[in-house]
């Protein structure tokens, strides 16, 4: 199992040596295998011999993450919510909430429709993990965002920040669904 301690220990030499791709790196459309090769095994599991929690499930979670990125780039609330469960936990800005699909559509729909992104992309390889029983998973991502949003009262708000988050997933009836998100934001 990849523990937090092992993850941080693995990151130290990459950061110290300057081998980690910088903010200009574009990971869009790249496979988990490529991320693993560059990051010396980050995101891998110790599950033996191709059992649940390896390979295909991790690739599927990475593809779901890429679809969420694309939903933002395209301004599509339908695409974003397509892989989300009705029961959902959202942790952001010091609060824990449980918005329904309808709540998320109401909160995010107008935002996505009014935003234009010049940049919305991973700035480092996402860390992907699937539980040993193959029923739970998560994706840890750092995303750079630049763009603008038309405000309902008129005017434009510049969007320029980096966000790091954990997407939480659960496999239900053989299908991965996003069941939560824990996020934070930092100005450039």
Describe this structure in words.
By secondary structure, this protein is of the alpha+beta class. The protein is built from 5 helices and 7 strands, in the order ααααββαβββββ. Strands 1, 2, 3, 4, 5, 6 and 7 form a 7-stranded mixed beta sheet that branches. The protein is globular. 21% of the residues are buried. The N terminus is likely disordered.
Précis, in short:
The protein is of the alpha+beta class and 188 residues long. The chain is 32% helix and 36% strand. The chain has helices at residues 4-17, 32-39, 56-74, 77-81, 101-114; strands spanning 84-92, 95-97, 115-122, 127-130, 136-150, 156-172, 175-186.
Using brief descriptors, characterize the structure shown.
about 190 residues, alpha+beta, seven-stranded mixed sheet, globular, disordered N terminus
The total strand number stands at 7
Regarding quaternary structure, what we see is single chain
Main sheet, how many strands, which sense, barrel?
Answer: 7 strands, mixed
User: What overall geometry do the principal axes of the alpha carbons give?
Assistant: globular
**Portion in beta strands:** 35-45%
Low-confidence stretches: 1-53
Radius of gyration: 17 Å
Order of helices and strands: HHHHEEHEEEEE
Structural class: alpha+beta
């Amino acid at each position: 199992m990849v523990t937090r301690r092992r993850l941080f220990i693995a990151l130290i030499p990459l950061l110290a040596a300057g081998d980690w791709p910088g903010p200009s790196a574009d990971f869009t459309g790249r496979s988990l295998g490529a991320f693993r090769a560059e990051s010396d095994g980050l995101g891998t599991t110790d599950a033996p011999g191709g059992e649940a929690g390896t390979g295909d499930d991790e690739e599927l979670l990475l593809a779901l993450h890429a679809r969420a990125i694309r939903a933002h780039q395209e301004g599509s609330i339908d695409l974003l919510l397509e892989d989300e469960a009705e029961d959902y936990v959202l942790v952001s800005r010091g609060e824990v909430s449980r918005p329904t699909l309808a709540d998320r559509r109401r909160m995010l729909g107008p935002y996505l429709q009014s935003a234009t992104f010049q940049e919305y992309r991973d700035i480092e390889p996402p860390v992907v993990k699937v539980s040993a029983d193959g029923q739970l998973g998560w994706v840890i991502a750092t995303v750079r965002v630049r763009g603008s949003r038309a405000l309902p009262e008129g005017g434009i708000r510049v969007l320029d920040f980096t966000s790091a988050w954990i997407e939480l997933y659960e496999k239900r009836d053989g299908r991965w669904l996003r069941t939560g998100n824990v996020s934070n934001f930092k100005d450039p």
